[in-house]
Amino acid sequence: MRLVPHKQFTFAKLWLMYARFEVRRLDLPAARKVLGTAIGMCPKEALFKGYIQLEFDVWKLRLLSHPVTLTHRLSL
Question: What is the dihedral of CA 53, 54, 58, 60, to 10 degrees?
């Protein structure tokens, strides 16, 4: 990430791939931090959509792994 001159241009896809890499490493806080940094440096629509998609995917995985707990919370 240090090789890309972020002040001149940046690639949203690069940031999103890095965040997905962190998710595959099971480091969700690092993935969120990566995307937060990316949005701070270059607030592109693709980054916002990628962040939302990441959170949605995490939510779906938690729902599938603990359906009773989350469904109960949603009904409250």
Answer: 10
CA 43 to chain centre: 14
Amino acid at 29: P
For the chain, what is the largest distance between any 2 Cα atoms, rounded to a whole number of angstroms? 48
Question: For 1-58, how does the pLDDT look when each residue is reduced to its tens digit (9 = 90+)?
Answer: 666 655 555 688 889 999 999 999 999 999 999 999 989 888 889 999 999 999 998 8
Q: Which residues touch 66 (CB under 8 Å, ≥6 apart)? A: none
pLDDT of the residue at 21: 95
- Domain ranges across the chain: 12-75
31: Cα separation from own chain's centroid? 6
- For the whole model, what pTM was predicted? 0.70
Neighbours of 41 (CB within 10 A): 14
